[in-house]
């Protein structure tokens, strides 16, 4: 397994990131932002998809401050319990700082063309939304980010493309909050929201229990197009 090590900007240590490279370089870099299950097989499979599209995939271990190397699935109650414990313990502000450090490192990564995206899922979808507001990433893609309605105060700061994939039946993000995000996004030309009918949370988690092939295919196609436009 290829990996790189990135220094935290607060001087508290360093963390690892899983890396998968495409056949041809130089290439743009996609920073993949984990769910509450850590850098697991679903994220590694997503990295394989990103590399197959011709981008360098980099997936940092954002739970390293709690416990390095978390690798859970969505298949057992015990793993779900542990995942939610991690979510409740995780410092999102520190996570954004670690992501900013990752983006900076990826701009000068061997084989990189200097352009970097973020693309996150669930917790990672929320963090990708935050990165759109707080970082210089060239494009940000959010899959079923949770609680995005409490981040709308800084939506005006988004100056690069932000693509939001929203599940119409997301059990972790109430309909009222989802509607606020869709409405607010219309005020910023850099933000595009797409709602997926009859899709639940985590509809694009590879081999996940909530996988929805149709919604995932449509969302992934839109993501591929946005990545190609920003990172080529």
TrEMBL record:
Recorded superkingdom: Bacteria
| SUPFAM superfamilies, per the entry | alpha/beta-Hydrolases
- Dienelactone hydrolase domain residues are 15-223
InterPro entries registered for this protein in UniProt = AB_hydrolase_fold (IPR029058), Dienelactn_hydro (IPR002925), Dienelactone_hydrolase-like (IPR051049)
Q: Which residues form a coiled coil?
A: none
MF (Gene Ontology):
hydrolase activity
**UniProt cross-references to Pfam families, sorted A to Z:** DLH
PANTHER family referenced in this protein's UniProt entry, alphabetically: ALPHA_BETA-HYDROLASES SUPERFAMILY PROTEIN, CARBOXYMETHYLENEBUTENOLIDASE-RELATED
**What is the protein named?**
Carboxymethylenebutenolidase
């Amino acid at each position: 397994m290829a990996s790189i090590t990135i220094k935290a900007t607060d001087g508290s240590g360093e963390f690892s990131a899983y890396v998968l490279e495409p056949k041809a370089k130089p290439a743009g870099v996609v920073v993949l932002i984990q769910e509450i299950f850590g850098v697991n097989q679903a994220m590694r499979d997503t990295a394989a998809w990103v590399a197959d599209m011709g981008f360098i995939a980099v997936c940092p271990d954002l739970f390293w401050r709690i416990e390095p190397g978390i690798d859970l699935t969505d298949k057992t109650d015990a793993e779900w319990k542990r995942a939610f414990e991690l979510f409740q313990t995780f410092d999102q502000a520190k996570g954004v700082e670690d992501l900013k450090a990752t983006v900076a490192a990826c701009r000068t990564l061997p084989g990189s063309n200097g352009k970097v995206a973020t693309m996150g899922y669930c917790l990672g979808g929320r963090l990708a939304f935050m990165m759109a507001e707080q970082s210089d990433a060239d494009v940000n893609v959010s899959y079923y980010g949770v609680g995005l309605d409490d981040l709308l105060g800084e939506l005006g700061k988004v100056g690069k493309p932000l693509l939001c994939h929203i599940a119409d039946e997301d059990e972790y993000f109430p309909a009222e909050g989802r509607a606020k995000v869709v409405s607010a996004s219309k005020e910023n030309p850099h933000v595009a929201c797409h709602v997926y009918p009859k899709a639940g949370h985590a509809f694009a988690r590879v081999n996940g229990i909530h996988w929805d092939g149709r919604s995932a295919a449509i969302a992934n196609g839109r993501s591929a197009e946005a990545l190609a436009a920003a990172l080529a």
